[in-house]
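Job type: complex structure
Entries:
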Amino acid sequence: MKPAPFDYYAPTSVEQALDHVAQLGYDAKILAGGQSLIPTMNFRLAQPSALIDLNNIPELFYIRPSDDGGLLIGAMTRQSTLERDPLIAERAPLVRAAMPYIAHPQIRTRGTFGGSIAHADPSAELPAVTVALGARYRVRNKAGERWIAAEEFFVSLFTTLLQPDELLVEIALPPMPPRSGWSFQEVARQSGAYGLVGVAARVTLDDTPSGRRCRQARVAFLSAGERPMLAQHAAKTLIGQAPTAEAIRAAAEAAAKDDVDPSSDIHASADYRRHLVKVLAARALTEAFQRANI
Amino acid sequence: MTAQYVGQRITRNEDPRLLTGQALFVDDVDLPGMLHAAFLRSDYAHARIKSIDATAARSRPGVVAVYTAEDMGAFWKPGPLLVPAPHSIKDLVFNQRTQIPMARAGDKVRHVGEPMAVVIAESRYIAEDALADIVVDLEPLDAVVDLFRALEPDAPLIHDELGTNLASYVLQEKGNYEQARAQADVVISRRIVIDRGVAAALENRGYVVQWNAREQELTMWATTQAPIALRNLVSATLGISENQMRVIAPFVGGGFGPKIMLCQPEEVLLGWATMKLNRPIKYIEDRRENFLATTMERGQIHDVEIALTRDGQILGLKDVFIHDTGAYNPYALTVPLNTQTHTMGPYEIPNFHTEFKVVFTNKMIVTPVRGAGRPQGVFVMERMMDLAAQELGMNPVEIRRKNMIPADAFPHEQGIIGQDFAQLIYDSGDYPATLEKARQMIGYDQFVKEEQPRFRAEGKHVGIGVACFTEGTAVGPYEGARVTVESSGKVSLVTGVGTQGQGHFTSFAQIVADQLGVDVRDVRVVTGDTAQFHWGTGTFASRGATVAGNAVNAAAASVRAKILKHASKALGAPEKELEIVNGQVRVADIPEKSISLSELALRANPMRGSVEPGTEPGLESTQYFGPQYGATAAGTVAMIVEVDTDTLLVEVKRFVIAHDCGTVLNPLIVDGQVHGGVSMGIGQSFYEQLVYDENGQLLNASFADYLLPRSTDMPHIEIGHLCTPSPLNPMGSKGVGEAGAIPTPACFVQAVENALADYKLEILETPLSPNRLFELVQAANP
Amino acid sequence: MTNQFPITVTVNGVRYERTVEPRLLLVDFIRHELSLTGTHVGCEHGVCGTCTVLFDGQPVRSCLMFAVQANGHEIRTVEGLGTMDKLHPLQEAFRETHALQCGFCTPGFLMTLVPFLEENPKLSEGEIRQALAGNLCRCTGYQHIIDAVKLASDKMGVKP
């Protein structure tokens, strides 16, 4: 299974990369980690006429604290770097929690944060995590740049708001609000296999006179629709409520019933996926609220 | 002769090469001027080919040739029947249809992946580019995928001229089932479904062929389990003499069955092409091709009925099944015959009616994969045992013990014909002992009485399963070996079998080292090179260690006799006073009176002078061994599983196997074989399943979607050994290679049912998956 | 646009200068351009781990990289680990525990394990299984490989 021929560009700056992107448009594909792209090219399912390799652009590899207490992460930052970075552990533990579910260590050595986002595989972990965290993406073209909220970025299967002349350059993660908890859950048939269903959750509690109440619940599912599915109905049932087992159960049922649109494939039926949504939502919310309560 | 090595955990001779990346595999062969082949394979399971136009492909730079069936002329013909049909079976129906080298314009393609053209180019990359240049005009036809559909009168025909999709019909009977049924207190009948899987050796198939026009000789490096048979069949197909062709099976990255399929299209085409082009050609199958165009196994549907007394004694069994052979049947009936013989397993079944129909389908050809039809038979029997136990309120261990052939009943005739066309006879065994050992190892009673109730009280779904099996191994016809003591004092052993990881370089060396009193590291083993040894059949059916091993033993013993004879003359001492230690022959109580093997070898092959008439030169012997029939190994597996009823994931918490393979040559290697078999068994229980759509398209032709068990999926395996030596060979050994794969799915299903006892499931299929368990659990709890 | 790119790669400490087509996979470059055939090809879609090599010291799937991407980088393959006369302690451990049968997947396991053993303290069986989960083996059922990792930890003086 050898790939078809292609023209190869190896820019060393974002400016250069943008030049190529502007010139080549849809004819070219971006080579970030290559861990999703190259298999499809080896199968000849994808036969781009050109590849623009971003791996030689040092300015895209970084993890920096941002002034608001969050993080700014260069799009080409390796998943293995995210896995080991102390800032990620401290300010974005949900990202770290998802890492062991992303394929295997050898894949994560090359795979990148931005590559996973731009590829927009509905069974990928990082898109769901960034949606749950309320991340924003900085996107550039020759003319300038814009910010896109994660929850708006994903349109459908492998389709995002990125225009053919645009490049994703940075991911901004907001700070975790006080009294927040998080959880990442995934069911896969084996280590590294595609998640049958997964969920990234971040909850925030308020201290009120009558006790702790849920202020915010961002729960995003992977493999439960054509893009990361943010559970709005589930969130509605939780806001203002005490995070009891009963409230969590109701939220999980709402998520399964109204917030997802799973499909059937050879590994799982839509019914089974919906069932897993309910199970994982409950597990994630329970764990997230426990963490928030500490 | 002291057994210093045989029976010991000797580390392997071949490992340093393999560990340092120095071992030669087929794709490592690199020859000057070598070209690369790629095959255009059908994307349709069933289609009529109107035309194949390779003009554009031929004119692509870097392409040296493109061949279609037309170009082959008289060389195009269906392959030979590899295994004869069992004509000793009464009223046998057998319609032979063997694979063709390439589909032809004017004819059909019969499975996805069937070759239609071959491109020979400067690189594999360019060859694959050229595949896209070939224009094929074809008319898709309805595909036959479902086994019952294949037999319907209006089903599309795979082989039009046959007028039916029935490939074979076999009926075997022992006793009288109908009578038994009439006398039974309990009769249970069910339909049981077993689905297809692949062997998925990590090394895909590959060949390098080189025609030497000046020598008029063809060399083929091949990932084959049967180098000698491959040479014989392909040379005949190409019209050259056997002696003009050399097949070398170097290190092979896993066999598991499909690499013993012979006269595969690629083998014939590449041999033909290198002779035509007079240039070496390499073809390495890629993983997608392996899923589509390498043989596979397991699909069967059984309608089975068991008749018992109310205290659990089996009076009879009736099994009517349908077996999927894929688009062709070159391997005849080996797999379903194995199913028949292994259904009875370790049990006394006085009345057994077993019949099967083999159907052609528009899927890849079926030939043995580790287990080779035995797992299906065991699955059926063990499921029926469990259903009977449920019905009668008996413990699954008890009902098995009750029906087992007792230890004093050997040799035991089982009354039907097996894959080697002989009456099935169990040579030796103690089945109740394996059951008892497994029962103890898993702590069956304690689990059922104490641990499981505790788990249940905690809301956990933990269950236990026990499954028993026999394993026909070490079948004939024969293998051979040649042992030579060289003038250096080192020993060379050459045998016809190949190696795919079984440790032949070591286990055979152990036999020789013990016989000849040398260091096991000083025995150099050559396998799989037809220029060095050209009589034999190959590694399959767990026969290598026993059949080839006994030939090795016989050859080494023969050389030992020669050594002692020569040494006796040289030392002036009677043979019975001599011993061989550390490469020296010496008089037992007078160690100074000795002579080295090296010196004896030199003397046995003088460069000058005269010898007595009738003397054979050297210290060498070639011996063959062929058993009267196959030795039967046996065992019992037991496992404890936990099912997460929320996610329907299953974890195997404990796994034990009590196994009897007779005399063990190297326990380290035997353990490894058992582990490997179990991992395939676990794979076939819960991870591996080929999924075809109604058009015969394989939907999961990659490792992303066809899941092999990983380290985190495997339990720790505890092995208990028992030994009932086989009377069928001097070493007393039996095979073990397929053991772990045979009973595991049956045990898994029993354990899962037991874990989910409150759902009262009845699982009559394998493999399972979390999704399938979800469906079954939902259906049980509407 | 040229389709031949000059690259300089250091493999097992040796510098190589070659010219490659961009689509040449790194594993094919290593095996056929450099004739280092110890690294094997199992699937070409990054799932089996047979092609694992060290890239700047970290394990990667060499079937999921192009040779051009290795320009200026360091690669270590199984040939750089030990020799038949002097096996690396990890290779010795594999031999002692019978952690290989056909040996085809073995180089991939070795290269995955080398940094793992260097970077981690002694791990439990469960943690070892986790570390091996990215490499497929069809012959051994993994059990002896786990034994080898434990033994290698001892040999290499890995701290608890």
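Summary: The radius of gyration of chain C is 16 Å. Chain C has two domains: 5-80, 89-155.
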